[in-house]
Design brief:
By secondary structure, the protein is mainly α. It has one domain. It is 73% helix and 0% strand. The protein is globular. The model has no long low-confidence stretch (mean pLDDT 86).
Length: 105
């Protein structure tokens, strides 16, 4: 996530027209992995990764967030709110995982 944040900052500053596409890829990929990790880790263990995911989501403006598929928008909203309970309820053990997401545990 740190590399995604730094790359996002560079794109926003040097090539803002590229940031939207990059943000869609990161939220649909890296942020999903962080969400998956929430389901299988305790709050203290996952908090640093989720804080970074939240920082990235905060970089994306509403125009980018509205272009996300519905499931990724739900993920972005839960991450932005640091809603660990909501993440676990929605994507935890026994809950349907976002399409294409595999467990990292």
């Amino acid at each position: 996530m740190t590399m995604a944040i730094e790359t996002g900052r560079l794109l926003r500053g040097l090539a803002p027209e590229l940031f939207g596409r990059f943000a869609l890829d990161v939220i649909g990929g890296d942020v999903r992995v962080a969400v998956d990790a929430v389901a299988s880790n305790d709050d203290d263990a996952i908090r640093p990764a989720l804080d970074l995911a939240r920082e990235f989501v905060a970089m994306a403006d509403d125009a980018v967030l509205h272009r996300l598929p519905a499931r990724d928008r739900e993920i972005a909203d839960l991450v932005a709110a640091l809603d660990l309970v909501g993440i676990r309820r929605t994507f935890g053990v026994g809950a349907p995982r976002p399409a294409g997401l595999t467990s990292i545990s």
